[in-house]
Amino acid sequence: MTSEAQQKECLALVFLPGRELSRFPDQMARFDFLRRHYRVSTVLSSAGTGVAGSRRTDIIAQRNPLLFSLQAAWKLLWARRDYDFIYVIGLPAVTTFAFYRPACPIVAYAPTHFEQSYGPERRRPFKLSAWLKLSTFLRGLARVDSVMAISRQLAALYTGRTPRVSLIPMGVDLGLYRASAPAVSADGRLHIVYPGSGGEGRGLDLVVACARRLVAEGVPATFHLVGCEDPVLERALAAEPALAQAIRVYAPMPYAEVVRLYGQMQAGVSLLAGNPFYSASPPQKIFEYMAAGLPVLCNDLVTHTDYVGDNAVVVDWSADALFDGVRRLHAQYPAYLAAAAAQRARLDDYAHTTVERRFVDELEIDLH
């Protein structure tokens, strides 16, 4: 990167309501790319703390995207500060530009379908406040110069809604996983990891039902759920103590600890319902599993199957199919482990180093 590029000044607009940027590995990586190549002068953030690497952070403690954007537009209007460009993390924050139109380029990171924040478009006319949020979001999106989408589905979604769309895939820091060496477990069990908070459409109900069969039929497999605070899970474990043989729950932990836990596992699981936003946004966890050399257990959804190959057991969306998948993975584990090692060696396109080059190249196109 030239010294000229390093002098370019960026304002980062971050809307992750109630959550710190560091909790989101892919979004945090984009911010790291920014601060390594540009001067990040100011961050307007919905989080309650500053962001390391910025000279200044202005906090807008607001969970509502419309109200956040109104306050962000007001700050930008009255600050009258000249930036070389604005970078948006947290797509609903592009609503800011429905109220304020800066002279510099605006680039937005799009890791999700906008319906994940606003709900299905077809329901909009029946709720005035929801319609207002969506219509102002789309107006702001049309004023964004460029959107960086992480999947072909998202690139297709945003094409035509904003002047320029680029496809830059989700990345993973391969260096964090160099020490990971999965192998058949000493206790003969199949240890399957799942990091995530759970929630609707994330398949934890399938995991619970599968675990019942694992216990009942004596299949040596355990799901390790990191940071899951899902009511379905909590109720099941309270009512059925025997499920603890097949489900182990961990409190939320720093990302580095999650990476270390991967090194003790034999596989990773990802389950997503086939709704509009999960069918457009690939989950970060499957790239992490592949970087760690873990075989993947996932359901048959395009945002899984676009990336995994013979390193994965792909199942239908049902507890019985998941159970059969666990048994198949256990019975043929050496073959899946070898396939996972081969897949790990083919991840260069998703390495942070590759993604960072594409990220900066795209920004330079937008800035010129």
From TrEMBL:
The keyword Transferase applies. One of its GO terms (molecular function) is glycosyltransferase activity. The keyword Transferase applies. It comes from the Bacteria. Pfam families: Glyco_trans_1_4. SUPFAM superfamilies: UDP-Glycosyltransferase/glycogen phosphorylase. Keywords: Transferase. PANTHER family: GLYCOSYL TRANSFERASE GROUP 1, GLYCOSYLTRANSFERASE. This is Glycosyltransferase. It comes from Rugamonas rivuli. The lineage of its organism: Bacteria, Pseudomonadati, Pseudomonadota, Betaproteobacteria, Burkholderiales.
